[in-house]
Amino acid sequence: MSEWTIGIIGGSGLYAMDALEDPQWIEVGSPWGKPSDALLIGRIHGVKFVFLPRHGRGHHLSPSGVNYRANIDVLKRAGCTDVLAISAVGSLREALAPGRFVAVDQFIDRTFAREKSFFGNGMVAHVSTADPVCPRLSALAAAAGEAAGADMARGGTYLAMEGPQFSSRAESELYRMWGCDVIGMTGMPEAKLAREAELPYALVGMVTDYDCWRSGEEAVEVSAILAQLQANAEAARRMVLELARSLPERREPSPIDTILDTALITAPDARDPALLAKLDAVAGRVLKAQP
User: Fold this and answer.
1) Are 150 and 48 contacting, i.e. CB atoms less than 8 angstroms apart?
2) How many other C-beta atoms can be found within 10 angstroms of the C-beta atom of residue 255?
3) Which residues are catalytic?
4) pTM for this one?
5) Contact 82, 111 (CB under 8 A)
6) What are phi and psi of 136, to 5 degrees?
7) 224: domain CATH number?
């Protein structure tokens, strides 16, 4: 069997994975609260996949209402080695037309109403997010998308906004001036939390619209986004199949697997036992190794 266990976080329009062999929905609890949904676990070409619909089946959770900490925690508890997020995004570039896929490699976080770390008073840690995306997983996902027939762009900066409202035209133009390529509401703090949990993370954005920056363009409407999502979701499912086929049989260690080795700063005698208990999955590896 494969050494990989791939967590898939499905965004808008992607609420299940039909290709899984022997699929089972399994409830996994988290000390960080309730995750978006149960986990759908199965295999594709011998590779174990753990699927989590970010907004829950039926899309009942808003971007700000998603419990990102619980979601990453339960994926870690389920044994995931790597996490691939598949998300709907708006385009801030002419060349990134609706229907294209973008393997993003950078984020700008403009969210403000979400818990963004597993750590805090009583157990302080600082991880680097200079390069927030795992280059290995991102390259594998991009190659899988290309093999699946998706029009794939490699690299791009994702602007994470709070939402749930779409951008004003002034905001959209500002983000373009900042050098952003796509815009979405869910990539952060998800990517930061995955890094804290020592989970290599990649995000493929499925472009649904041009946001509202184009002159003479109609403002973003949910109906148009939903229509594009249906086409994008089928390509995303094919991408996951190709990813399962193309993964190397052996998963070589990633530097992200052990990033907490140099991140914890609180002295052992100053640590909060209650917080340590909540960190059993996220940081259990390094905490157990320390005196």
Assistant:
1) no
2) 10
3) 209, 211
4) 0.95
5) no
6) -65, -50
7) 3.40.50.1580
* Digitized pLDDT (tens) for each residue of the chain, 291 residues in all: 569 999 999 987 777 788 899 999 999 999 999 999 999 999 999 999 999 999 999 999 999 999 999 999 999 999 999 999 999 999 999 999 999 999 999 999 999 999 999 999 999 999 999 999 999 999 999 999 999 999 999 999 999 999 999 999 999 999 999 999 999 999 999 999 999 999 999 999 999 999 999 877 666 667 677 778 777 888 999 999 999 999 999 999 999 999 999 999 999 999 999 999 999 999 999 998 876
d(CA 262, CA 43): 34
DSSP secondary structure letter of residue 69? H
Residue 7's DSSP bridge partners are 50, 83
Q: Count how many residues are written for the chain.
A: 291
Domains in the chain, number:
1
Provide the residue range defining the domain that includes 30. Answer: 5-289
> Which residue, chain included where needed, has tokens 């949904």?
37
| Range list of H helices, the chain | 68-77, 135-147, 169-177, 190-196, 222-246, 273-278, 284-289
